[in-house]
Amino acid sequence: MTSSSILRHPLVSFGREVCGDLEAGLRREWLVTNGLGGYAAGTLAGPNTRRYHGLLVAALAPPVERTVLVGAAVEWAEYGGARYPLFAFEYADGTIDQQGFVHCEAFALEGALPVWHYALADALLEKRVWMPYGANTTYMRYRLVRASAPLALAITPLVTYRDFHTLATHDSYEFQAQTHAQGTTLRAFAGARPLHVLASSGSFTPQNDWFEHFFHRIEHERGFDATTSDLFAPGTFHATLQPGETWTLVCSAEDQPDLDAERALATAQARQHRLLRQAQAEASDPVVQQLVLAADQFIVHRSEPDAPEPSAPPAQPTGKTVIAGYHWFNDWGRDTMIALPGLTLDTGRPTEAAGILRTFARYVADGLLPNNFPDSAGVIPGYNTVDATLWYVEAIRAYAQASGDAALVDELLPTVRAIAERHIAGTRYHIHADPDDGLLYAGEPGVQLTWMDAKIGEWVVTPRIGKPVEINALWYNLLRTLASWLAARGDAAAARYTALAEQAQTSFMRRFVRAAQPHLADVVDTPSGDDWTLRPNQIFAVSLHHPIIAGDTARRVVDSTARALLTSYGLRSLDPADPAYCGTYIGTPRQRDSVYHQGPVWSWPIGAFAEAHFRVYGDAAAALAFLRPFEHHLRDACLGSISEIFEGDPPHLPRGAVAQAWGVAEVLRVWRLLAGKIR
Q: pLDDT of 470-485, one tens digit each?
């Protein structure tokens, strides 16, 4: 490990200027994950601002059935005759209770693991939170770094048992506790998963109390219930630390959690070293290192029996998949395939990439990849997508190019050919190649098929029925890729797909390009004619492996995108000059969904823009400069990760999911691509 590694010199760190400021601490969130879809998360300052926050959010049927088991903890330190809070709560009446953040001297992400330091007179107390890979367990370790006398800890875990999308009150459960030497085991109701709350040493005093009416301010901002939230206090753990000693609280939904916290921490730290080594990122830019570790948070396990034939697809795939974002997303076909190259190929994890590609191949039905897998086990996935399948073929191409694994291409080639043929002949949702021009048509009333998929009741906000620009750029790439694979194997069918690709390209230039327009059409052949709205979708006509346009046309696309849509953190989803543009993203779910793709900045297309800019202008340093603002963003919102969206108007406040797979993946992928061109 090089001395410059973020594991030794954190990229994300703060002193009292942030740690001691309530508002600054509340807008910054920390996240640790377990490779199962479970996680622990909260704010730097302490109060939970989201219903999704908690010290243990377990994935009871990985990666779904995410359940908040431990919401928070009451933490007191006694030292030198004084009593210091290490916690802070916000209640429905506006009270900020205890304000433990004022004692926080420093915070840092050591890789992806959060560490707080509390200054208590001349004592310095360190707190770490992490989860072991592959277990629904959270460790909270306290270490007395320095002191001139012993320090006493009194820690009260606050528990619940609720789906992470909901809140619950004290009358929802009647906890049954079994106290033993190391702590307590709790059941919220008959049949509930047991929750073990254990300590490495010290004593435990049972109690039976409720903390009521917590306030979740971000849920309030998002138009959701923010106050019907109570947590149960089963008892208090007591321990006394001498300088240099540690004490650990273990919260677990596993049958036999490991109480050797030092071993667990060493394992977690070693895993971070290993992730950087296999990504060959030990000497990379600190931003690259941070994104490599962030990428790991989205690759998770799915526990399901073998899938039956695609004609009767089961609810879940087996093996590895990708969580689209934290906190509330599950795995989506589109997000997975867009994110896969950055998450796996640019992190040295080709085996996992191959596993994900194989997993999803078994779920292709009628030539389509699943759009999303529901957030519960045993439910059939939805197939309402036109782009997920096309991105799937692009992901296979990227994998084959990076790995040289021709065997996987051989294995998946029949699936890809079947996909192409179903798209040519026609499949669900009126998806078909128009025989007159070779362009791909998709859509029917009431169904959202592209990534601009907001729907309110029966209202599809951005229906994009017809021939969308990025869909046809992807369709062209599929045909070119399939033709190249077949040609390499001496298959005469390659000529047919080459001819179809050439037809689609010729038609694309005729239908999507106008001399008088500086940008491409967004959708042609809609029910009301051609749509010339300026959106970021046109950039993929330049950025994809097989660009469907080139030369002056490509330059015009890059320039028009830059002038109207480019921001520091991604591309606006709509031209600000459009009457439908909305530069903010606040309000009720209906208000937010109605503008989801009508102005907010999306982080993930910035990768395509930077790559397209380099392709047109040939200046890698200039293209990389479009990504550099994300270094600052890594110190905001979800620390060490990238937000889903930002407001369209300056200062472009982060909104949506706090950590999004395709945003992390695309910034990482293109950052490494362009940095490699500069050397």
A: 999 999 999 999 999 9
